[in-house]
Amino acid sequence: MSAHPSIGFIGFGAMAQRMGANLREAGYPVRAYAEHQQDGERHGTPMEPLATLLPQAEVVIVSLPNDAILEQVLLGADGVLARLESGRLLINTSTNSPALSLRLEAAGRARGIAVVEAPVSGSTPEAEQAQLVVLAGGEPEAVERARPILETLGKTVHHVGPTGQGAAIKLAINGLMGAGLAALAEALAYATRAGLDAEVLFEVFGDLAVLSPHHQRKLAALREGDFAPQFPAALMHKDMGLLLAELNATFQGAPTLAAAAQQLALGAELHPDADYVITADVLLEEAEDAATR
């Protein structure tokens, strides 16, 4: 008998697989559900249909790609929140709109289920090493109940405020990340059009303090032509759209973020499943073509 509560993952993509592995290593019993795999194993975790996973799970961790899928899976008469027993805990690690976080908490409260939003900052390398930054929002009692699990997943757990504020700060962080990548891509494209050698560019930019460690990692991936999706372009595009919608709702002008979203949409349209650094590759290819004309 485990001393830890049993955990059921709903959605078991690249990030969730790594989180599940860290929880298993810490002694948590972990099972998972994914729409396209309901038996066997994935990344060492048993896969099950919801009908058998939900009755066993004392804690449900959700990792789904967008608001529409979250609503479909969690809400409604046949949704997960309607099928969970009272007293359970649901932790939502997805990146979604603040409004949806509030709806999920309200639906959980009506059923006696504690709901904590806990989006994470970090990509698959941080998830693998349990070095995520967890951005928890919700009632203090619920967040403290979730904290031992969240501390297993990340290097720090920040209780940023009530429900909705975890989603908001995650969108702000991803906006900063996306705008930084868009600026890097445009700077590299300009220097390429000006005739600088690509290897010189990568060597010099790789030596700069002005690039964050995250963007240094993206620069290295770009140099190697490695577009394996640590953070897919389609998800970055989705997050920038959520952020712009929030900005419009608060009547805040954000021309820098709007321009960055437009640039990042290019990579998402052409290569949605590649890492979002693909946008820089697209701009560099255009610049190289222009420089040789």
UniProtKB/TrEMBL annotation:
Segments forming domain 3-hydroxyisobutyrate dehydrogenase-like NAD-binding: 164-277
InterPro entries: 6-PGluconate_DH-like_C_sf, 6PGD_dom2, 6PGDH_NADP-bd, HIBADH-like_NADP-bd, HIBADH-related, NAD(P)-bd_dom_sf
Organism for this UniProt entry: Pseudomonas oryzihabitans
Coiled-coil ranges from the UniProt annotation: none
Pfam hit, one: NAD_binding_11
Protein name: 3-hydroxyisobutyrate dehydrogenase
Residues annotated as the enzyme's active site: 170
SUPFAM superfamilies given in the database record: 6-phosphogluconate dehydrogenase C-terminal domain-like, NAD(P)-binding Rossmann-fold domains
The 6-phosphogluconate dehydrogenase NADP-binding domain, residue ranges: 6-161
Keywords: NAD, Oxidoreductase
GO molecular function list: NAD binding; NADP binding; oxidoreductase activity
